Amino acid sequence: MDNLFSEGLTLMVFGMGFVFVFLTLLVFITSIMSRLIGRYLPEPAPKVVKARPQAAGVQTGNNDELIAVLTAAVHKYRSK
């Protein structure tokens, strides 16, 4: 019985050690890959969108109709 117990403990220690080493390597390799990708493949700069000129007769300060439409849409979405 004592021999079986010691074999179980040995197996448990080796198994947990293997998992610990694997996860540690995984963290290091993932962080190295992240740094390499950030260095050699940086994200492109965001494009600057120029504002379009307003059409004649369009009021930019009056958003009452837009707010009413958005409120109705949100109310209909939430009522489902």
TrEMBL record:
Membrane topology category: Single-pass membrane protein
User: Organism's domain of life?
Assistant: Bacteria
Ranges annotated as spanning the membrane: 12-33
Gene Ontology terms: cellular component: plasma membrane
What are the names of the required cofactors? Na(+)
Gene field: oadG
**What's in the keyword line of the UniProt record?**
Cell membrane, Ion transport, Membrane, Sodium, Sodium transport, Translocase, Transmembrane, Transmembrane helix, Transport
Q: What main location does UniProt list?
A: membrane
Please report the name of this protein according to its UniProt entry. Answer: Probable oxaloacetate decarboxylase gamma chain
Q: Report the protein's function.
A: Catalyzes the decarboxylation of oxaloacetate coupled to Na(+) translocation.
Q: What EC designation does it have?
A: 7.2.4.2
